[in-house]
Amino acid sequence: MFRRKNQSHSEQDGEDKQHKVKELRASLGQLSGRSAQYCTDACLKRYLEARNWNVDKSKKMLEETLKWRSSFKPEEIRWHEVATEGETGKVYKANFHDRYGRTVLILRPGMQNTSALDNQMKHLVYLIENAIFNLPEGQEQMAWLIDFTGWSITNNVPVKSARETINILQNHYPERLAVAFLYCPPRIFEAFWKIVKYFMDPKTAQKVKFVYPKNKDSVELMKSYFDMDNLATEFGGTATLSYDHEEFSRQMAQDDVKAAKFWGLDKHAPGVNGYSAAEVAPEPESIALPATARA
């Protein structure tokens, strides 16, 4: 009897949420072009979830994102435009997924190599889009691993940069971040964190986990998300953290071709990052739609 009640409640909740999705879609009016392509049911659900299923608040949030995407044009960014930012491997997509099949981004703030905020944000947005594009079928979120090796107060990420990163992530990529592990940050980082946390909404802040090698609970939590054989020693694992900029650039060039094809931009991008389209063209087998496009 209780099981039936629970099932009934679950089904009702699902129906209510589906109704909210339809209500939000109707409130947006007729969409066209990339906005229509972006606003799948899965996308609308993420914005509703981010605003506790309040249709009006979700609509406002989504419309602000569509305005931002129209101006920033994240789907048009190509690796060759941001490759300089990535030379040190300060942010890159890992060659493994977490235990839930999520794409993993590795961030190494101690490897910062530039000072132009606009270019840094363009680089980060490119990699967020790429991480989403490479999510397995049925997976909507990514994981972040932040390595503090080499980090110090002298090469600290400016508050303005951290604030803009948070703004982009939580306002324009809601419910995309599953978890962010900050591995062994130095004590001086705690003061910086108190400032940065002020700009986060509670939902985002709860996804940030601090891990210290001597704190067994935090280490066990991290192990529940990752196979330690995949993790580098910098994260307490057994693998070697190595970033090959040339190889990573080739991978991104290949992904650029696929992304351009998906967004209908392939006719305008015959070559990427020094490679011809023929060199980096994907195999003829079917390509899974990126999570931004899945209903």
From TrEMBL:
Record-annotated CRAL-TRIO domain positions: 79-243
Gene3D superfamilies cross-referenced by the UniProt entry: CRAL-TRIO lipid binding domain
InterPro entries found in the cross-reference section: CRAL-TRIO_dom, CRAL-TRIO_dom_sf, CRAL/TRIO_N_dom, CRAL/TRIO_N_dom_sf, PI_Transfer_CRAL-TRIO
A GO term, aspect molecular function: phosphatidylinositol transfer activity
Region (Disordered): 1-21
Biased composition (Basic and acidic residues): 8-21
The name this protein goes by in its record: CRAL-TRIO domain-containing protein
UniProt organism field: Anisodus acutangulus
